[in-house]
Design goal:
- By secondary structure, the protein is an all-alpha fold.
- It contains 33 helices and no strands.
- Among the domains are: 356 residues, no CATH class; 63 residues, no CATH class.
- It is elongated and about 105 Å long.
């Protein structure tokens, strides 16, 4: 007995020692990584897209400024997590970090990722033979994108932690022991809370209820755990659903960006990847309310209506071309397993350049995916694996309705790591010809993950990844940052000269560097090379307008407006250009169209009233300004122009005029 107890104590000691060593190595790794990133990387100093949104929301929460009447457009939970851990408090209006790095948020996410690795070790000990139970946590620990997402302000790490913890609770123990979630209503309630929390991070996590229900239903004590599971989930979700439904005026989910994501993934022009739209200012308006208002020619009543419109347009495209929609869904399902990282949003090569410790994390996604798919076939009939396999399939199926980026695939990594270890175990145990089957499956998995036909798309990822970094350098605004941004944009054009966003970004940087003529040449060259050349023609016209070169801008504006009659910004520019070239009557008509198109935008009233005043129609101008103030009572521009008109009527000689930037000049 003493010898047995001694052996157990020795094993416990070795486990404690190995755990302490792993934590020490992790601490050294994270410390070295964060030190290097904080010293040199623009990626951590200037967040963009989703990261910028979450930081801004967290900043508002920390300052107590988040309006209770605002619906949750994106993850309701994650901004509170960021605020609670100290993130988002030191960013200026340009989105550039001014204070110290968000060490609290990073540390919390690092601990959660260590929790994922530890949970995977627990699941592996239940599902795999002991020599192979270390493979899944090792594979996850050596997967570089996970370390990147720990460092960034994105919801992936908390989301994967919740998923993995629930799956550990659903995994049966050795020798047929029922899963913990089915043996205790307290554990089931905890699993329900985790499912609810994961759903508040990303709504696809609600699908976890199916494998959880199956695990609970396998027990004799069905009722209490099942009730506790559902109660825990609903306790998280119902307050948020009620909040969003009241603000949206209809039954709504926990977030209001599902329609937009569905449109990106299945709407006209969808290719399976994230894409942006000209004029869509995501960071300022993540629901696309302003963008849709301009596109539809009428005001859109908040994020709830915007979400409904996006979904309706996407669903119409699906119904019109069902075969295309099904093929696109299948393509996205495949993209979840392809080997290359999708760098357009998260440029991994840039992260590794700025954070050299990331180069130590050598496990590629293609290896996880190929061996994971092979392992899936080998364990598909084993009941103990059901929660992991079912969750993997449900996540891929649901996410494929939207679009694919590298960070969405992180949720698959724990399952793929377990399955890869299962494949290794099967290959090791078998002898002779029996080994041929796992080898064939591994070869088949490798063939699946090869990025067949994605050569041009990978060039686009490379270009857009470089543009992602360039955009951040440009936001710094200093000469060094602008010079670096120009270099990166030019390198992106060399990688793929067909990306509209790269030409636009380069032109903006050149203008800020006072190289206007070069910016005009860049836009003109791009308009001849890209499929959406009209967008660059529009930008070219607008740049001519900024330089008051109305004769050069006018034909481009008229050409663009023929295909885009409801572009409010172009209508304003057209009114200015027409006035500047002496075509005042046409300028007045363009301004009337702008008022009709955007009745809640003061700009149209300013344009129209100023033009009427210049033609001597003072009373009509006064009526326009007053009508505008009734619709837009907070407009200082309308109020000022009404005062200027009164002063002109009292003896001022110079009437107001339309300014290219959208203001009316005061009388002089």
């Amino acid at each position: 007995m003493n010898a047995l107890e001694g052996a157990r104590a020795a094993r416990r000691g070795r486990r404690l020692a190995s755990g302490a060593l792993a934590l020490a190595l992790a601490a050294v790794f994270w410390g070295a990584l964060w030190t290097r990133l904080d010293q040199r990387s623009v990626l951590t100093r200037v967040p963009v897209l989703d990261e910028a949104h979450y930081l801004r929301e967290a900043q508002a929460i920390a300052a107590g400024r988040l309006a209770p009447a605002t619906p949750f457009v994106m993850s309701p939970l994650y901004p509170y997590f960021v605020a609670a851990t100290g993130g988002g408090r030191d960013f200026n209006a340009d989105g550039v970090r001014q204070g110290p790095p968000p060490h609290g948020t990073r540390l919390a996410q690092a601990l959660l990722w260590l929790g994922v690795i530890g949970g995977l070790r627990v699941a592996a000990r239940r599902l795999l033979d002991d020599p192979y139970a270390w493979i899944p946590p090792a594979l996850c620990a050596l997967y570089a994108p996970a370390a990147v997402f720990v460092t960034t302000t994105l919801l992936e790490i908390p989301f994967v932690f919740c998923l993995t913890t629930v799956l550990v609770l659903l995994t049966p123990g050795p020798a047929g022991v029922a899963p913990a979630v089915s043996r205790s209503w307290r554990v089931a309630a905890g699993a329900g809370l985790l499912i609810g929390a994961a759903t508040l991070l990303r709504p696809t996590a609600l699908l976890l209820l199916l494998p959880a229900w199956l695990a609970v239903g396998a027990s004799r004590r069905v009722r209490p755990p099942l009730v506790a599971l559902l109660a825990g989930t609903l306790a998280c979700l119902l307050p948020v659903v009620a909040h969003n439904s009241l603000r949206a005026g209809r039954l709504a989910g926990v977030s209001l960006n599902g329609g937009l994501n569905f449109y990106i993934g299945q709407g006209p022009g969808a290719n399976g990847f994230f894409r942006s739209f000209e004029g869509f200012q995501f960071e300022a308006d993540p629901a696309g309310v302003t963008f849709l208002s301009g596109r539809l020619g009428r005001p859109v009543d908040g994020p709830g209506e915007a979400d409904r419109i996006w979904f309706a347009h996407a669903w119409a495209a699906v119904r019109e071309h069902p075969a295309r929609a099904l093929g696109l869904w299948a393509r996205k399902a495949w993209l979840h397993f392809t080997a290359p990282e999708i760098d357009q949003v998260t440029p991994l090569s840039v992260w590794k350049r700025d954070g050299p410790p990331l180069r130590l994390l050598v496990v590629p996604y293609g290896l996880l995916s190929a061996l994971g798919l092979a392992g899936l076939v080998l364990v598909a009939r084993r009941p103990a694996w059901r929660p992991w396999l079912l969750t993997l399939g449900l996540l891929v199926a649901a996410q494929s309705a939207f679009f694919v980026v590298s960070r969405y695939r992180l949720a698959l990594v724990p399952s793929l790591a377990l399955l890869a270890a299962a494949w290794a175990g099967e290959l090791s145990r078998r002898r002779g010809r029996a080994r041929l089957w796992p080898a064939v499956l591994a070869l088949a998995g490798a063939l699946v993950v090869v990025p067949w036909g994605l050569g041009a798309q990978r060039a686009a990822w490379n270009a857009l990844g470089g543009a992602n970094e360039a955009r951040r350098w440009a936001r710094l605004g200093d000469p060094e940052g602008l010079a670096r941004a120009e270099t990166l944009y030019r390198e992106s054009l060399e990688a793929d000269p067909t990306q509209v966003a790269v030409y636009q970004g380069l032109a903006r940087v050149l203008v800020r560097r006072e190289q206007v003529e070069e910016a005009l040449r860049v836009l003109a060259a791009g308009a001849l090379r890209v499929d959406q050349g009209d967008l660059l023609e529009r930008d070219l016209a607008m740049l001519h307008m900024q330089q008051a070169r109305y004769d050069e801008a006018l034909p481009r504006l008229l050409s663009y407006r023929r295909d885009h009659p409801d572009d409010a910004e172009v209508l304003h520019a057209l009114a200015v250009a027409l006035q500047g070239t002496g075509r005042t009557a046409e300028a007045i008509e363009a301004s009337r169209r702008l008022v009709a198109l955007r009745p809640d935008d003061p700009q149209g009233y300013v344009n129209l009233g100023v033009l009427l005043a210049r033609t001597g129609r003072a009373e009509e101008a006064r009526g326009v300004f007053e009508a505008g103030l009734r619709r837009c009572p907070d407009s200082a521009s309308l109020r000022r122009n009404l005062q200027v008109l009164g002063a002109a009527g009292a003896g001022a000689r110079t009437p107001p005029s339309v300014d290219p930037k959208g203001e009316a000049a005061t009388a002089r």
